[in-house]
Write a structure and sequence with these properties.
This protein is mainly alpha-helical. Helices cover 69% and strands 2% of the residues. The chain contains 13 helices and 2 strands; from the N terminus they run αααββαααααααααα. The chain has a two-stranded antiparallel sheet with strand order 1-2. It is elongated and about 75 Å long.
């Protein structure tokens, strides 16, 4: 009897048939919404570029050719008469190759920063919401202190101290995101910790760790998934902003923000492609994450679910 009660207290994994039904419902919802489906294909394209960029890039992104600097798009030249489909920058580097390599940095920073910030924030929110008292006060006041400072200024300060680098920017941007997750998880935990199935798990002798991470956490994953989808977009923008200021990754690592920074001196010379192509890459990626996040929020809202 005790085993049956414990099983009932914990959310069981849905059967395979239910998962297939849920997948079909999600696909039908994507197709019906149209724009989220377009956003999904754009993000899949960015992911493909991030994974296979080195294999499909026409040239080395850091290879300079001063003789072909600021070449227009669809210009051929160089040693092997290579085609510069999106033109070259002020140092004669292929813009298309740098765009493909830059996708990897943007996605890597966005995903890993969310993993860092999400892990810290989820643990802090669960602990604060479950135990309450002075632990809750300390964690929430630390979050309030961080929110009292403009995040971009904090990021600039820490990156000046730590120096540029992919690991450093992931760490700084990740730590900057934890408060959002902590507040949401704390609020959800406060509403769930007195539920019947949580009380049943405690009464049956489950450890505090088991109650928090095996009973409460699975029931708050839906809002966390939505928040993460939006935060990836904001982190990509933050990385581009810091790279634009020269505080992101080292200069020899191509990023979309650094490409925009390099285009500043050439805009007056009507070299439009230097700013347009990396700008479009940032806009399309961030917009796609936001559109997909909007759809995900509606799809995971139980009040909007229909039998399909």
């Amino acid at each position: 009897m005790a085993v049956d009660t414990v099983t009932a207290a914990r959310p069981a994994a849905p059967p395979l048939s239910n998962r297939r039904k849920e997948f079909r419902r999600a696909w039908r919802s994507l197709v019906a919404a149209k724009w989220p489906l377009v956003a999904l294909f754009i993000l899949l394209g960015v992911l493909f570029a991030a994974i296979f960029g080195p294999a499909i890039a026409p040239l080395d992104p850091n290879r300079q050719n001063i003789m072909l600097r600021l070449a227009d798009p669809l210009t051929a030249g160089g040693r092997n008469n290579a085609m510069f489909y999106l033109g070259t920058d002020g140092l004669g580097r292929d813009v298309l190759s740098r765009l493909l390599y830059g996708a990897r940095i943007s996605l890597m920073v966005g995903v890993f920063a969310i993993m860092v910030g999400g892990t810290i924030g989820v643990v802090a929110g669960l602990v604060a919401g479950y135990f309450g008292g002075w632990i809750d006060d300390v964690i929430m006041r630390l979050g309030d202190i961080q929110l009292a400072f403009p995040f971009i200024l904090l990021a600039i300060m820490f990156l000046v101290i730590l120096g540029p680098g992919v690991f450093n920017i992931i760490l700084v941007l990740g730590v900057g995101q934890w408060v959002t997750y902590a507040r949401i998880v704390r609020a959800q935990t406060l509403s769930l910790r007195e539920k019947e199935y949580v009380e049943a798990a405690r009464a049956l002798g489950d450890s505090t760790f088991s109650v928090i991470f095996r009973t409460i956490l699975p029931n708050i994953m839906a809002p966390l998934t939505v928040i993460a989808s939006f935060n990836v977009a904001s982190v990509i923008l933050s990385e581009a902003s810091l790279s634009f200021l020269g505080l992101g990754v080292p200069p020899n690592v191509p990023t979309w923000g650094a490409m925009l920074a390099d285009s500043r001196d050439q805009l007056m010379a009507n070299k439009w492609w230097l700013a347009v192509f990396p700008g479009l890459a940032i806009v399309c990626t961030v917009l796609s994450f936001n559109i997909l996040g909007d759809w995900l929020r509606d799809f995971l809202d139980p009040r909007l679910k229909t039998v399909g």
